[in-house]
Amino acid sequence: MQAHVGGRRRLPLLVQAGQGRQHVHPKRLGLTELDVAEWPGTNTLGVSMNRVDFAPGGTNPPHIHPRATEIGIVMKGELLVGILGSLDSGNKLYSRVVRAGETFLIPRGLMHFQFNVGKTEATMVVSFNSQNPSIVFVPLTLFGSNPPIPTPVLTRALRVEAGVVELLKSKFSAGF
Fold first, then answer.
1. Is the N end or the C end of the chain the one with fewer CB atoms within 10 Å?
2. Is the peptide bond before 139 cis (omega within 30 degrees of 0)?
3. Where are the domains of the chain?
4. Residues forming the annotated binding site?
């Protein structure tokens, strides 16, 4: 299945075992971006959008858009959408299953994720109030940075042994 929403294809739409690049499998999703890189006319207009297709169990891992608020609509399927509050909110998780035809809003800079909780494919279309919202994937940032964050920093921050940190680093050293 191929889909282009006027933008560039970044990942296969549906990733099954044995297909695509290995680092795509854990997320089980496909992404088509439409931003200033592919649609130069959006430069200075402050808008961009993505289409994300999820296989059953597909995950858009915890991430942050530091330069944009995100608004989305689930086109088909059902997604668990979670937003993590800040320290002053007690790091509260706000989550809800969003079904086809329903919308959601993610404030700028808050960590969030989407997870296909259904047994069928799910699709969402999201828009941003920036032509370049950027994305910071939390696991990749912590464990796949270049150069790497020193292991003692992560062992103290995460309250785990060095072996756990090294194992996690090995899983993200090549990206997602």
1. N
2. no
3. 8-134, 136-176
4. 50, 60, 63, 65, 70, 112
Please give the annotated binding residues for Mn(2+), written as ranges: 63, 65, 70, 112
Which positions make up the binding site for oxalate?
50, 60, 65, 70
Mean of pLDDT over the chain: 85
DSSP string computed for 73-118: EEEESEEEEEEE--GGGTS-EEEEEEETT-EEEE-TT--EEEEE-S
What pTM was computed for the model? 0.81
Q: Specify whether the CB–CB gap between 29 and 53 falls below 8 A.
A: yes
Give the span between the Cα atoms of 150 and 7, in whole angstroms. 37
Give the tokens for residue 113: 């994720």
**Which pLDDT tens digit goes with each residue over 79-131?**
999 999 989 989 999 999 999 999 999 999 999 999 999 999 999 999 999 99
**CATH architecture of the domain covering 8-134:** Sandwich (2.60)
C-alpha of 92 from chain center: 19
